[in-house]
Write a structure and sequence with these properties.
Radius of gyration of chain A: 24 Å
Largest sheet of chain A: 10 strands, antiparallel
Number of strands of chain A: 12
Structural class of chain B: alpha/beta
Shape of chain B: elongated
Number of helices of chain A: 6
Distance between the termini of chain B: 79 Å
Strand content of chain B: 15-25%
Distance between the termini of chain A: 76 Å
Order of helices and strands of chain A: HHEEEEEEEEEEHHEEHH
Number of helices of chain B: 18
Structural class of chain A: alpha+beta
Oligomer: heterodimer
């Protein structure tokens, strides 16, 4: 009798504790941040923190060409640097028209602007700046299937022609691009903001599902990777260059 | 003369008292279960608190009270919620031992909180107060705790009374918690009368009688807002693939409400005002606005389960994302079970649409009284619910949902409309009257108006609610369409007007005597594979139907691998007409005009297919032409190949296929690399963007610290 009383009391007490704990946990039960892993990577590897940005570009406008346009501003903090307010404009082209992703980054304090263009189909990124209403200059980097890169520069004010050079790897491509674009001369906040967005923003893609039943499925994203997953070495090295963190960037030799 | 009980006599009475208590606990549970089982059994629900009072009166130990109440709760749920295991199997996919374990754990969890709270009340008040008064507080408190913990309220006691007018009247006038408390007090008072000696027995009986009379004398729940229901059609559909052939004829509709996740389009869409964003029009022949449930995506892959208001052209008016996500099925619970499928919405449940101040709720959000209250407080005057109910496999399960809808309408004094995928559409008045209700076996539009009453019209425009309702007509009166897909990706099956398409998975496909005028290959394209299968296998399945027209509804469908394989059986011209894209296609797929499903000729049907923001290749299969083209590509020098290069993974050039359009042809990178590199034409944005002042274009987005 005593034993059964003991077990019943224990069951009651344990259940009470579990329920109380669960109630507290339920009150604090917040959704998982899908980018938590990426944010941790940014923080731990590059000391990069973004805050007061709208959650995953949740507000779009659509322009007359069918581009989705998202405007936002927020702050970029980097270990060892000050905190800067930045502004961005994202423009995503309809998939069937090419799926081009355009990103413009503005340093609010200085008014400095740079744009970044990513074409998934042709596997290239362009880093540029507008020099007038119709002209710009910059550098483009294109990934080849054999691991080499093609790099070209352009300056509309000087010439319509561009010279393309093939280099052996992403690091070499970064060096060529840096020679033109001077990543290290730009505020690292601009580069790092573009770097962060280059990890997430993708053109519209068909999706597919892990299918369980007619009404239940989880989703995985189809093969339209982000710019920095296609250009990983290049992206990482640009970030390292911008931050001048040679010791922490194993992927970028000789930095 | 009464003698003091000896310990021996007390010991002798203990087993009898224990048996009586156990019987009372079970009576309480079974009575509530019976009330859940069939709404006509609603009086049994009142026996549950009465029997529970008797049971608790016979109980001496707190732990036994806890176990007894928990067991009673389990009994009631096993009887009344017999549909739950099937729901879990369908919605979450748990089967076998995992399914059984989850079902048991879920039932234990559902019934735990009320048992715990009632046991706590027993511990505190058992020797201080009669049972009925504190039970009237503890019972609703237990249900509230369960809702906070599990986000479930479908099994609240009050929902058993959805057909009982005096209870609905009380709910309308005094609100949810007072009504629950008084109802439990009434039932508990009956039990108290059974266990007390006279004259207290008669006082408890009088209290129960007084409460019952008070409920009966309560003025009926007010009826208001019926006019807001006229002009609304609620869609009930069996799946996310079947489209209406036409809007209901002769109806002056200005709003069509669609179910949750009504179509697998997965568009890129933000939240809030539409800001010029468009989706494909939903019902081109209707001038009505639409409120449609869609899962939407952000550029970083985040998903939202949204209710999207669009005008007849597909322009988004506004949208809101689901806030009350169901644990396990839609979000992780305590980080232990399930995963976060969707980002949680933040918009209030209020949206003016088609001239109506509406409270748009997405399926399980109806379980949240707070959300309904918030929408009504913001001015909402009609509830519009979009639901996905296929997992609610029985009529009893659907009745339980209808009960919740009735209770919300009555409590907040607003009529409600429910559109459903796999369940019942319904119209409910603010006094709880079920004005119209569809079946679940057929697709249709449910409507109601004060002058016309309830009407249910199928997707062909014919009345469903007549005794001689017609069946789905045979597809023989138009071109037949076969849709090939992969079981890995059923979400990309092409949506078709009802009865027009047949669906065939590549997995296990065998070529027999299939015939179809048109074949659609629907899914992913990643040349040289399509639908996760080699192009030759996909083409062989398509050729099996002997089609006049093949539409490749995938990314990069216009490739020499697939077009060539499709043309393989076309040695004798004319071969089939083949349509495909050399680019990505949007998540919603290609656009099919009405002629695609009706025109007699393949050319006319092919012309009715289009690619938003892009162009399609339309080629009459001609093997000789293709062989010539491939030979031409084989002869191209590296610089020429560079000029035609459009993709680098896989390496493909785009070359003109006569007048048909362009075709992607794979080449070896080594041949291309030998050429002179050329910079892509695009090196700056296609169009100069506007000045990036966020507040100049629209209100700044809501901020999330730490995002």
């Amino acid at each position: 009798m005593k034993r059964s009383r003991f077990w019943l009391s224990s069951l009651f007490g344990l259940t009470g504790l579990l329920c109380t704990a669960a109630l507290f946990a339920a009150c604090a039960d917040e959704e998982t941040d899908p980018n938590a892993e990426l944010k941790a990577y940014f923080a731990e590897t590059f000391g990069l923190y973004l805050f007061e940005w709208a959650e995953d570009s949740e507000q779009f406008a659509e322009d007359e060409d069918g581009f989705l346009v998202a405007l936002d501003d927020g702050f970029v903090a980097i270990d060892g640097f000050d905190v800067r307010e930045m502004r961005i404009e994202e423009r995503i082209q309809p998939a069937a028209a090419g799926g081009e992703v355009f990103l413009k980054v503005i340093d609010v304090e200085t008014g400095l602007e740079r744009y970044f263009l990513y074409d998934f189909d042709e596997r290239y990124v362009v880093f540029g700046e507008d020099t007038s209403l119709d002209e710009s200059r910059g550098v483009g980097v294109q990934a080849n299937p054999d691991g080499t890169y093609e790099v070209w520069t352009f300056d509309d004010a000087v010439s319509d022609r561009t010279e393309v050079e093939t280099v052996p790897d992403g690091y070499a491509a970064m060096q060529r691009a840096d020679a033109v674009n001077r990543f290290s001369a730009l505020p690292p906040h601009m580069i790092m903001l573009a770097f962060a967005l280059g990890h997430t923003t993708t053109p519209e893609a068909r999706t597919t599902y892990y299918h369980a039943t007619d009404t239940n499925y989880a989703m995985k994203i189809a093969a339209t990777p982000s710019a920095c997953s296609l250009f990983k070495t290049f992206c990482d090295c640009v970030a390292c260059r911008a931050l001048e963190r040679s010791g922490e960037c194993d992927l970028c030799p000789d930095l | 003369m009464i003698s003091a009980p000896t310990s021996e006599s007390a010991d002798a009475r203990r087993p009898a008292r224990g048996r009586a208590a156990a019987l009372a606990y079970m009576t309480s549970g079974v009575a509530l279960g019976v009330a859940w089982f069939d709404p006509r059994m609603w009086p049994f629900a009142w026996l549950a608190p009465a029997a529970l009072v008797i049971a608790l009166h016979q109980t001496r130990r707190i732990a036994l009270a806890f176990v007894g109440v928990w067991a009673a709760g389990l009994a009631s749920h096993l009887i009344g919620f017999d549909w739950v295991p099937e729901m879990n199997a369908i919605s979450i996919g748990y089967t076998g031992a995992t399914g059984v374990f989850f079902d048991v754990a879920q039932m234990l969890a559902w019934t735990l909180c009320p048992a715990l709270v009632i046991a706590a009340g027993f511990a505190v008040f058992r020797r201080r107060l009669p049972i009925a008064p504190w039970l009237a507080v503890a019972w609703p408190l237990g249900e509230y705790a369960r809702y906070r913990l599990l986000a479930i309220s479908i099994d609240d006691w009050l929902n058993t009374q959805w057909t009982v007018e005096p209870v609905l009247a009380a709910l309308a006038h005094i609100g949810w918690w007072p009504t629950v408390a008084l109802a439990i007090l009434l039932g508990g008072a009956l039990g108290q009368a059974c266990v007390e000696e006279a004259p207290r027995r008669w006082r408890w009986a009088a209290l129960a009688g007084g409460l019952a009379i008070g409920a009966i004398l309560t003025p009926a729940a007010p009826r208001q807002g019926d006019d807001l229901l006229a002009g609304i059609a609620a869609v009930h559909v069996r799946d996310a693939l079947t489209l209406p052939h036409r809007a209901p004829p002769g109806e002056a509709l200005d709003l069509i409400v669609w179910p949750e996740d009504a179509q697998h389009r997965r568009p890129y869409l933000g939240v809030g005002p539409g800001r010029g964003v468009h989706i494909e029009p939903l019902l081109p022949d209707s001038p009505a606005d639409h409120l449609v449930g869609l899962v939407t995506r952000s550029p970083n892959g985040a998903l939202r389960n949204q209710f999207v208001a669009v005008d007849p052209t597909g322009a988004v008016i506004a949208s809101r994302a689901k806030r009350h996500l169901m644990p396990v099925a839609e979000r992780s619970w305590l980080g232990l079970v399930g995963h976060d499928r969707f980002r949680t919405g933040r918009q209030p449940p209020f949206m003016p649409i088609a001239g109506r101040p509406a409270v748009p709720l997405i399926c399980g959000e109806l379980l949240s009284r707070e959300l309904t209250a918030e929408g009504v407080a913001r001015g909402g005057r009609v509830m519009l619910v979009g639901a996905r109910d296929a997992m609610m496999a029985t009529d009893r399960a659907l009745r339980h949902l209808l009960a919740v809808q009735v209770m919300r309408s009555v409590e907040y004094g607003v009529p409600s409309v429910r559109a459903s995928q796999g369940g019942w559409a319904s119209f409910v008045a603010s006094d709880g009257t079920v004005l119209a209700r569809s079946g679940r076996a057929r697709n249709g539009f449910l409507m109601w108006s004060a002058d016309g009453g309830a009407r249910d019209v199928d997707f062909f425009g014919r009345r469903l609610d007549k005794p001689d309702a017609p069946g789905v007509p045979a597809a023989a009166d138009g071109p037949t369409v076969a849709v090939l897909y992969t079981e890995e990706d059923p979400g990309h099956r092409t949506r078709c007007p009802e009865g027009r398409c047949t669906y065939h998975a590549l997995e296990g496909f065998t070529c027999a005597d299939q015939r179809a005028d048109s074949v659609i290959i629907a899914g992913h394209g990643r040349p040289p594979d399509y639908l996760s299968h080699p192009a030759e296998q996909v083409a062989a399945a398509a050729r099996c139907f002997g089609p006049e027209l093949v539409v490749v509804d995938t990314c990069y469908g216009a490739s020499s691998e697939l077009f060539g394989a499709l043309a393989a059986g076309a040695d004798e011209p004319p071969g089939p007409l083949i349509v495909g894209a050399t680019s990505l296609v949007p998540t919603a797929g290609l656009r099919y005009g009405a002629d695609f499903f009706a025109a007699p000729t393949a050319d006319a049907r092919a012309a009715a297919v289009s690619l938003p923001h892009g162009t399609l290749t339309r080629w009459r299969a001609d093997r000789a032409q293709l062989v010539g083209l491939l030979a031409e590509v084989g002869r191209m020098d590296p610089d020429t190949l560079r000029g035609h290069l459009v993709r680098r993974d896989p390496v493909q050039v785009a070359v003109p296929l006569g007048e048909a359009g362009a075709l992607l042809v794979p080449v070896e990178w080594a041949r291309v690399a030998a050429g002179r590199p050329r910079a892509p034409d695009r090196r700056r944005p296609r169009r100069r963007p506007p000045s990036p002042r966020p507040d100049a274009v629209y209100a700044a987005p809501a901020k999330d610290a730490g995002s």
